[in-house]
Specification:
This protein is α+β, with helices and mostly antiparallel strands. The protein has a domain of 189 residues. 16% of the residues lie in helices and 27% in strands. It is built from six helices and 14 strands. Strands 1-11-10-12-13-14 form a six-stranded antiparallel beta sheet. The protein has a three-stranded antiparallel beta sheet with strand order 2-7-8, covered by helices on one side. Strands 5-6-9 form a three-stranded antiparallel beta sheet. The chain is globular.
Length: 335
């Protein structure tokens, strides 16, 4: 199965597709952060976020070009996220769902339908149509639906995406396992807006954990990660279960003789890395695993990049919503 980093492209041009990839600029963003080969699996993804300059090491022109392109990459993904999550008119997110609206990015639904597909959420919409009843139902429960970019992890696409692969249609999916006693929560390849998270200590939560800044980063998840959760766990005790991503950070040295090294960060002014002339390190993020926690477990909840939560309504009704309260699935029992 081919996996794609679109809407950001890694082209087939001899010198690369990004503006500062060709000679003599040699930015590494395209090769290090946007690896896409048509018909092949994505591999060796780096998710470099910052160029970490060190005193006493030479400054490379390519490093300055990398800073510019990486900033534009992060901004482009943020703009794409806003388009996908906060849309208007007859779009599938706000005013209905139509299977033809997911065949290519930007298509609009032809109308509204009350035949909502499984594993697909419907947002609060306006205007005439069957969504009026859903809007009234959600409002009566007191849900306030905000935009994307909450404190946690936000997928680039809330529901259907045309870019993931031949047998995957969404970044986030919920499935019922065989026997019906547990559910699988899947996070498929794609871009996720994340941040470093941890628990603040002290009497008034005033002690800030190291490495926690509140900065957000776009990170690409290379392969599907999932977690299976028993139905009994979701249906008992606390009302809410938060499900999300475990994210870590590290510094990658410009070297070739240690575990956390990347020899290709050496001076590439000639077009190939010169191992005798190293430059800046890199600050990188990675998605390690999928986790879940009861909402009352504040310490572990604060460490997790929450993506969605399951609400236990009692009488075996479980509802899935993103962390901004946008509904994913009205009842897991319908799976």
């Amino acid at each position: 199965m081919a996996q794609y980093t679109q809407p950001i492209y890694h082209g087939n041009a001899p010198d690369g597709s990004f503006p500062l990839s060709p000679s003599p600029y040699f930015s590494r963003v395209e090769d290090k952060n946007v690896i896409f080969e048509a018909g092949e699996d994505v591999s060796d993804f780096n998710n470099y976020q910052f160029v970490a300059f060190r005193p006493g090491f030479s400054l490379q022109a390519s490093e300055l070009n990398e800073i510019q392109e990486n900033m534009q990459l992060q901004m482009s993904l943020s703009i794409a996220m806003m388009h996908n999550w906060i849309t208007h008119s007859a779009s599938y997110l706000w005013n209905g769902w139509n299977e033809d609206s997911h065949t290519s990015e930007g298509d609009e639904a032809d109308g509204v339908t009350d035949d909502f597909p499984p594993n697909t959420g419907i947002g609060i919409g306006g205007g005439d149509g069957p969504l009026d009843a859903l809007e009234a139902a959600q409002n009566s429960l007191g849900y306030s639906i905000s935009g994307p970019g909450w404190r946690g992890a936000t997928p680039l696409y809330p529901f259907k995406t045309p870019y993931v692969g031949e047998d995957i249609t969404s970044q986030v999916a919920i499935e019922k396992n065989a026997g019906g006693e547990s559910y699988r929560f899947k996070f498929n390849p794609g871009w996720y807006l994340v941040e470093m998270r941890d628990y603040w200590t002290g009497v008034n939560d005033e002690v800030q954990p190291p490495g926690i800044s509140g900065l957000k980063h776009w990170v690409y998840l290379e392969s599907t990660k999932y977690v299976d959760i028993a139905k009994d766990y979701l249906s008992t005790n606390d009302k809410y279960t938060v499900i999300g991503l475990d994210v870590s950070s590290k510094y990658i040295r410009c070297c070739s003789d240690e575990a956390e090294c990347d020899g290709e960060l050496a001076d590439n002014a000639s077009g190939t890395p010169n191992s005798a002339s190293c430059g800046a390190d890199r600050y990188a993020l990675s998605i390690n695993a999928v986790g879940y926690v009861k909402s009352t477990d504040i310490q572990n909840r604060e460490k997790l990049n929450g993506v969605l939560y399951i609400e236990n309504h009692g009488e075996e009704k479980l509802t899935a919503r993103y962390m901004n309260n946008l509904m994913i699935l009205n009842s897991l029992g319908n799976l």
